[in-house]
Amino acid sequence: MNPSAADTARQRPTVAVLGTGIMGSGMARSLLRAGLDVRAWNRTQAKAAPLAADGATVTVTAEEAVRGADVVLAMLRDGPAVAAALTAASPGLHTGQVLLQSSTVGPDATDDLVRRAADLGLIYLDAPVSGTKQPAEQGKLTVFVSGPSAVRETVEPVLDAVGEHTVWVAEVPGAASRLKLVVNTWVINLVNSVAECLNLAEGLEIDPRTFLDAMRGGPLDSPYLQGKAAAVLTGDLTPSFTLSTALKDARLILAAAGSSGVRLDLVAASADRFVRAEAAGHGGEDMIATFYAGRAPGKDGG
Ligand code: NAP
User: How far is the CA of 24 from the centre of ligand 1 (A)?
Assistant: First the structure.
């Protein structure tokens, strides 16, 4: 790369976004708004196609998306999905490219992906995000990063576009993914707590709105409680984080806790609720559909 091309890459890196689901689409739009060149690829092409209207180059293959890109941003479901995308992209990858791995994959898959990336000559940044659909669309995520800070300058324009806050956790990949599991333990327990309060209110014939009013503005209230409860009460379960993705994360948390000798009763119970709700057909809805895992028999709508 000649010096001026290197300067351009630092200031305005070309980004290949692999995975344009709920999060990847929003992040791609935030990158485009920041003026970066974006190539977008998704396994189901129809989900990437709308990004063309926003200025992205939508590619048919992962290989085309990554060819010549400075940064490869992976925002896929899980470790196996990232591994599959990397394999498909491999003929287009080049040594020294940065892999900004933002999917929630857990520590074991991170180790596997770090090895794969090293074999492909990529520089791996373990970069999971906190925040959901709207923050992704608004460029207001928090990004946890672990990996070599030597590539900080290259990725900063990308991190600044997708997030309002970057936490550099460590120089070696893995710590950011472990932190992400701690954060999601909080979220998963919280959403199931909201659901159980609504279940119990319904079972005890307390109008859930009375419960929400009793909490409103007090020290135990939270926007999360009010927002998730409102989704159930209005019946709008459009996902910002699907229940089946939350179940995937609960399983990652339990596996990581198990291998470190930690016992997590609440996440285990939350996973059971997610399993029941998914079996009842709610996997594609927002994770607050865990509400349907605890309803008293005879209540309809589940
Ligand atoms: P999503 O809407 O379900 O998107 C998942 C993406 O993964 C889609 O692009 C999907 O492609 C792709 N995919 C799944 N399996 C694949 C495979 N075997 N090969 C290639 N592509 C595959 O999920 P999301 O909510 O955007 O989440 C993406 C990642 O971000 C997950 O790791 C999630 O845990 C994490 N995350 C989500 C949130 C949130 O609030 N939603 C927040 C933080 C982190 P198809 O379209 O072809 O199925």
Answer: 8
The pTM of this model reads 0.96
Residue 269: predicted pLDDT: 98
- Closest ligand 1 atom to the C-alpha of 239? 41
Encoded amino acid at 216, one letter: R
Atom 9 of ligand 1, residue of closest alpha carbon: 19
| C-alpha distances out from residue 255 to 6, 108, 197, 259, 264, Å | 42, 9, 27, 6, 10
Atom of ligand 1 nearest to the CA of 241: 41
Distance between CA 116 and CA 93 in Å, rounded? 12
The domain made up of 179-294 is a member of CATH 2.30.22.10:
no
Tokens of residue 204, six digits: 């005890």
Going by alpha carbons, the residue nearest to atom 31 of ligand 1 is: 77
Ligand 1: residues whose CB is within 6 Å?
Answer: 19-24, 42-44, 47, 75-78, 80-81, 84-85, 103-104, 129, 132-133, 240-242, 245, 249
How would CATH label the architecture of 5-171? 3-Layer(aba) Sandwich (3.40)
Q: Give residue limits of the domains in the chain.
A: 5-171, 179-294
Task: For residue 85, report the distance from its CA to the centre of ligand 1, in Å.
Answer: 12
* pLDDT tens digit sequence for 79-135: 999 999 999 999 999 999 999 999 999 999 999 999 999 999 999 999 999 999 999
Cα four-point dihedral sign 175, 181, 183, 186: negative
How far, CA to CA in Å, does 112 sit from each of 22, 76, 119, 267, 283? 25, 15, 11, 25, 27
* Residue whose C-alpha is closest to residue 67's, from 121, 14, 105, 143: 14
